[in-house]
Amino acid sequence: MNEHIFKYEVGAYEVTSRRFGFGLVILILILLVPTTIQSQNIEADLRGYVKELGVFSLSNDLGTLRYDNILHHRIESRFGLGEKFEIRADARTRLFNGWTVNNSPGYGDFLSNDRGYFDLSHTWIDTDNTVLNTAIDRLHVSYINGPWELHAGRQRINWGKTMVWNPNDLFNAYAYLDFDYEERPGTDAFYASYSWSYASSVEAGYRLGNGIDESVIAGMVRGNAGEYDLQFIVGNYFEELAVGAGWSGYLKNAGFRGEFTYFHPRDNFFDETGHITSTVGADYMFQNGVYGSAELLYNGGWSRSLNPVAQLTRPPSASDLFIAETGYFLNGAYQVNPLTSISGGIMGSFDRKMIILIPQFTRSLSENIDLLILAQLLKGAVFTDLTDTPNGIYFRLKWSY
């Protein structure tokens, strides 16, 4: 992929006994749950895909050209254990070649550095020319009984309402420009919810960490008022306290959604000033078939990064979602025919001179083979001062099974 996506920092990394202990608990649950329901049938659902992604990275004057390649296999599995228990386990294996691997010593170690509480990533091959890595991003046991749901393990806890930036997504916010990771990251957590209607529920989660400063403990209440779904959140977000709300609904024929969260340092509570991070967005389907969407961001927790180029494609903090204090995103999409679609996006900021252009073309070649051609063109000194090749053109073939 593009050089601006693969710049990274390798820091000290240690797998503690607590991390192993959490994995052992999950493993024991996976092994023991089936024995408690031996009389029940086990239903298995296996699926996945193979993706070939090639990336040309270009300088603005087209004088520098670099190439990276990723061969990516993902397997998704779900095992139904009777009527109430379920196990899910998903893994992504990627083979990297090209300029980035050749010029990034320690890249295999970087991929092995699992960001979760439990180490579920392993690099099998790490040479100057090739890196092969497998990462498990879903591994959890679920108990579902009517309105109750309990989940333990690596999972995705999605609290976001808007499409690009999500200050309500305390557990696993994602980077919009990391388009090749459709499933988005998971987190090691315990999660419970109780629903008393389709749009009403109370939910709570605990993202594991070594102490409260490395943990997320939060709750949410969902409800409905008129044409709007509402949610209210409160919790501990690492070293901060968080209180927020979100909504989604309609203004006449246009979708209208937003979310905001107030973050305040937990220590020295009365001596520190907190901040708000918020987004608001809308989308509309025009009569000519063009689908348009827009989103605005106020990133109150913004802190200047030494490498904003890399920050764009890493999972961000819910408190600091972008490389500027403000952000905007405009997108238009058109379905040319049932097999072909085109879109164009613009991402930028009101307070930093930068813009990102994202044209995209998709084509269904057969029932289970899709072609994607996408570009990410990064304009502005924010990017060109850090990378020689700020423009990435991506070609991807995806076979699903």
Features:
401 residues; mainly beta; 18-stranded antiparallel barrel; 6 helices; 53% strand; globular
Outline, from the CA principal axes?
globular
Unreliable stretches, pLDDT < 50, 5 or more residues?
Answer: 1-18
Order of helices and strands: HHEEEHHEEEEEEEEEEEHEEEEHE
The main β sheet shows up as: 18 strands, antiparallel, barrel
Q: Tell me the fraction of residues in β-strands, as a range.
A: over 45%
Question: Helix content range of the residues, please?
Answer: 10-25%
Q: Tell me the number of helical segments per DSSP (H or I, 4 or more residues long).
A: 6
For the record, give the distance between the C-alpha atoms at the N and C termini, rounded to a whole number: 24 Å
The count of strands amounts to 19
Structural class: mainly beta
Average pLDDT, rounded to a whole number, is 90
Gyration radius (Cα, Å) is: 22 Å
Note down, in words, how this protein is organized.
There is one protein chain. The chain is mainly beta. It contains 6 helices and 19 strands. The protein has an 18-stranded antiparallel barrel. β11 (240-251) and β12 (254-265) form a beta hairpin.
Can I get a quick summary?
The chain is mainly beta. Helix content is 10%, strand content 53%.
Chain-wise SSE layout:
Elements: H1 3-6, H2 17-36, E1 42-58, E2 65-81, E3 85-98, H3 99-102, H4 107-112, E4 121-126, E5 130-145, E6 148-155, E7 187-197, E8 200-207, E9 216-225, E10 228-237, E11 240-251, E12 254-265, E13 275-285, E14 290-299, H5 308-311, E15 326-337, E16 340-348, E17 355-364, E18 369-379, H6 381-384, E19 391-400
Antiparallel strand pairs: 1-2, 1-19, 2-3, 3-5, 4-5, 5-6, 6-7, 7-8, 8-9, 9-10, 10-11, 11-12, 12-13, 13-14, 14-15, 15-16, 16-17, 17-18, 18-19
